[in-house]
Amino acid sequence: MSADDLKDWPHLLKAFDEGVATGLHRGLQIYISQHGQPLLETALGEAEPGLPLTSEHRMLWLSSGKPLLVLIFARIWERGLVGIDEPICHWIEEFSTHGKETITFRHVLTHTGGFRVLDLGWETKSWPDVIELICRTSLEANWVVGVTAGYHTISSWFILAEALSRATGLSVRDLFDQELRYPLDLPELSIGLSEEWYFENQSSVAPMYARIKGELQLLDWHQPPRAICISPGSNTRGRAKDLGAVYEMILNEGEAADGSRYLHPTTIAALTARHRVGQFDLTLQHVVDFGLGFIINSQAYGPETVPYSYGLWTSPRTFGHGGSQSSIGFCDPESGIVVTWATNGMPGEGWHQRRNRALQHAIGLDLFERFPQLNTGAST
After folding, report:
1. Which residue range(s) make up the domain with 305?
2. Which residues are in the Beta-lactamase-related domain (predicted)?
């Protein structure tokens, strides 16, 4: 789709263009739907200089892909193989060291576990070595498990995936395939590209840029080793419409696009309810509410300051997850709107938060002008 085709989305196009002019990104891939009916699916700008970004490029979602592992947990939880309040050390015995013995799956999913290891070196270490490093990590000083709140960027997602792998007897990659990609018929999703797929399809892997000294500089994240390493909470890739399909399933109370039952409605309700409420997050440096693995709309704590906002036009029930300086996916169950987008520029937290608010506001304005009955509130 060209810019001319976005005549019905002028505010979105303007916000995107302003980001390009400011040097925040080269391209944007976006998908918007209502009650499962696509309203917009497009890509704007460039994947790299001279090469247009397309809707088929596999974008790096970073933490926007964390809900994928949450859904895998939920299916295994539904079967009774794991319990939400079961200690992680029941499955990973070596995790029960240095004060981490009481950490449960609930604590992991609400970011109240207290083992925020930030430098794992997972791009060059083996999976067992990463797990061993996390297990040797001490509980953070003055941390009260289940009470103190601090977003775990990477560490808890390795532990969650490892526990689920041991509970099912599946490798982490097979776990992802059998519990998510195949049941939802989303073959383009990945948590680290397989080496075979990468060398056959590397041209469809979108590069990522970082804004350094005011200019976008190419990172090597679209190449091995990083591109093919598994990191369940930070190395997820796919197309915007794939992440949109995941949120549409959630909006449809666990029913997949083919009519099959992926999760029970009560499980969906549990995942997207507020479990962590009104707590200051030591990582995000803001009060942020969490469901089980999902960030629940927290604009009540400061609409202009809350990180990775879903936009002023969204309802309090909106849930989703953002990806570091790059992307976001969310669903508003009251309007039935699903929004997923990913850029290929990481401009720094401050610039990204401004960009995120600008894009979300633009989307709300365009939705309101096209569909006044939505009453998004963006016009105010």
Report:
1. 3-70+175-374
2. 15-359
